Amino acid sequence: MRSSGSIVTCDRHVISGILLCFLLVAGCRDASKVGPRKSTADQPDAVSPAAAKDEARPAEVKGKMLSSYQSAIRLEPLSADQFPQIIPGNGAQHGYATILESLGSGCAAVDFDRDGWPDALIAGGGDFVGKTCVGQPVFVLRNCETYFEDTTAASGIGTTRFYHHGICAADFDHDGFEDFLVTGFGGVQLFCNQGDGTFAESTAATDLVPGGWSASAAWGDFNHDGHLDVYVTGYVDWSFENDPPCFAADGTTRDNCSPKIFEPLPDTLLISGGDGTFTEQSETFKVRVDGKTLGVVAADLNADGFLDLYAGNDVMMNFLYRNESGKEFADWSIFSGAAVSRRGSPDASMGVDVVDFNNDGRFDIWAANFEMEGFALYENLGEMQFRHVSDITGVSAIGAFYVG
Predict the structure, then answer these.
(1) pLDDT digits over 273-306, tens only?
(2) From residue 306, how far is each of 55, 103, 212, 318 by CA, in Å?
(3) What distance in Å separates the CA atoms of residue 112 and residue 170, rounded to the nearest whole number?
(4) Contact (Cβ atoms closer than 8 angstroms) between residue 99 and residue 91
(5) What is the pTM of this model?
(6) Beta-carbon neighbour count of residue 149 at 10 Å?
(7) CA–CA dist 144, 344 (Å, integer)
(8) Phi and psi at residue 73, in whole multiples of 5°?
(9) Distances in Å between the alpha carbon of 360 and those of 50, 279, 337?
(10) Which of 17, 81, 126, 346 is the most buried (most CB within 10 A)?
């Protein structure tokens, strides 16, 4: 079981559009049939039986095998008449060059109308009216099998109250329909799915009150009582009153300030009361208050039946929390090996996720980082121990000139 909140895209550039792609993935090996790995470092000339068998195959057979591997994954963009052009806003046209504008817009793929086809929810971002931050609509695109229909106007969402970045979907009220939480600057908003293609805001009724600036969130039953709780990230303490002038390399052009010059905002853990309301229990669960968190993902990383948390921080080490039987979190950030880069220094992590990339039955961790840092893949070695394997798996070939 896992719940991903790594849904905010931080590219530090204006997002001009979002194009949905279909991803076809071939079946994976049964992890229960994969045995332990054996090192051949001391047997450099040894040839495995599998390799010997492969060498014995005719060239044309091996060619067909290679072709089948190459066709395992295919990405095909949808045309403009199949997927509407979506342009989130960030207010850059006003020329303020605030750090608020440097975060992108996230999205969620979820079957909100339960017709068997995944629909798309896209954060619309925000704008400025003078020195006041205002929200743009959340775009609601219904999957009609061969095309996506823009149903934003009929969804009941309208204009959000906050300049927002992230969307995290889950059926928090157990009615069979996916609801979603919007995170952003100034607060969060919870929209309950009415089951008819429309949504109703329920933020006040649920006592979801985190303020400040939140980039993303992760749903999960952290205390193991059968009800979904939610972890909301906190970024930095920026406002127009706390907006020092920062400049590009030429020393004259106004530019976004680095998060390094701002104080962090604490993350917030909200525990469900089982009656549709939430209570903050950040201190009880020992959630750290010194992060600058942009992405977060919940997963059972040590297979003990309790959801752990991994939080990706900007310009500081990432946090890894081990869930102690649903009562509190233990900070395993440094001990785990998943908090820093292969050089032992913090990266500027933004989007995070988990997946068992090597089919050994354990969730591994992915973190997208800033330019000149490289993306991080942490292999789960068991017992909450991780190894940075971007180099040996080829992830580092992506290059260091991309921002995740």
Answers:
(1) 999 899 999 999 999 999 999 999 999 999 999 9
(2) 45, 31, 29, 20
(3) 10
(4) no
(5) 0.82
(6) 13
(7) 48
(8) -125, 130
(9) 19, 37, 19
(10) 126
| % of the chain at pLDDT higher than 90 | 72
Coil/strand/helix, residue 139: strand
CA distance 267 to 205: 21
Assigned token pair, 103: 């975060």
Phi/psi for 70 (5° steps) reads -65, -25
Query: Residue type at 403?
Result: V
Q: Is 12 helix (H, G, I), strand (E, B) or coil?
A: coil
pLDDT in tens, 172-207: 999 999 999 999 999 999 999 999 999 999 888 777
d(CA 281, CA 186): 20
Token duo for residue 374? 């490289």
- Triad 368, 373, 379: Cα angle to 5°: 55
**201-214 pLDDT, tens per residue?**
988 877 776 679 99
Longest dimension (CA), the chain: 72
Beta strands in 46-172 (DSSP E): 74-77, 107-110, 119-122, 126-129, 132-135, 139-143, 148-150, 163-170
- Residues constituting the chain: 404
Tell which residue, 267, 268, 286, 283, has the closest CA to residue 324: 286
Question: How is 231-277 classified by DSSP, letter by letter?
Answer: EE---B--BTTB----B-TTSSSB-PPPGGGS-B---EEEEE-SSS-
Token pair 């817009």 is found at 105
Give the 3-state secondary structure percentages of the chain, helix then strand then coil, rounded to 5: 10, 30, 55
Q: First vs last Cα of the chain: how many Å apart? A: 25
The percentage of the chain sitting over the pLDDT mark of 70, rounded to a whole number, equals 82
Token reading at 338? 């998943």
Per the CB < 8 A criterion, the answer to whether 309 and 248 are in contact is no
pLDDT classification of 156: cutoffs 50, 70, 90: confident
CA 135, CA 137: separation in Å to the nearest integer? Answer: 7
Burial 264-292 (b: 16+ CB within 10 A, else e): bbbbbbbbbeeeeebebbbeebebbeebb
Q: How far apart are CA 172 and CA 154, in angstroms?
A: 23
